[in-house]
Amino acid sequence: MPRSGLRLVGWLAAIAGLSYVLGRYGMSHGADTASPGADRTGVSLSSNRGAFARTAAAAACAVVLVCACAAGGVRYAQQSRNEAIARALLHGDPASAPALIRRYGCGGCHTISAAPGADGQVGPSLNNLRQRVFIGGAVRNAPDNLVRWIVSPSSLAPGTAMPASGITEAEARDVATFLYAH
C-alpha cells in the first residue's frame, strides 16, 4: 500500500476509535440527578464517576492516537518533500539505493539510519548529508561532487581512507539521491 494510503488508514482508525469511545462511554453517563445519590435512571453516582473515569481515560487515549497520526503525517510530508528535492537535484532512483548500499558495503563503514543494516562506525554517519557543507572533509557538498565522491573518492581527495567500491555512476546517482532524501 502506498504511504498516502497508510496515512489515510491511520486517520480513519483514529476517527473510528474516537467515535467508538464517544459512543460507548459518551454523555449517556451524565450526572444529572433526580434524587440525591442516583441519576434519573436510578444508577448510583459512584458508578457514574467510574464511567466518567473510563470516558476520560478513553478520550485521552484517543487524543494521543490522533496526535500520533498527525505527527506521522507531518513526518511523511517532510520525507516526501526531501525526496522530491533529491530527485530534482540528482535525477536518481532512491528506491534502489538500499540494495546498492548493501551490495557495495557502504553500511559496513557508515551509519545510514534509513538503510537497514547500515550501522558502520568507521566513516562518518551519512544521515542528513544534504545539510552538510563538505563531503569527506575535502569538497563542497554539491550533487555532482557527491556522485563523483561515491564513484572515485581518491580523485577528489588523494589519500582518503574511503576506497573505490566499483559502483557505476548511475548507481552512485541513485545512492546520492537516497542520501540527500534522508
Description:
The protein is mainly alpha-helical. The protein folds into two domains: 3-90; 94-181, Cupredoxins -  blue copper proteins (Immunoglobulin-like, Sandwich), CATH 2.60.40.420. 58% of the residues lie in helices and 5% in strands. It has helices at 3-25, 45-90, 97-103, 106-109, 143-151, 153-156, 169-181; strands at 33-35, 38-39, 134-135, 139-140. The strands form two sheets. It has a two-stranded antiparallel ribbon with strand order 1-2. It has a two-stranded antiparallel ribbon with strand order 3-4. The longest helix is centred in the middle third of the chain and has 46 residues, at 45-90. It is elongated.
Q: Which short descriptors sum up this protein?
A:
2 domains; single chain; 182 residues; 4 strands; two-stranded antiparallel ribbon; elongated; mainly alpha; two-stranded antiparallel sheet; 7 helices; Immunoglobulin-like; 5% strand
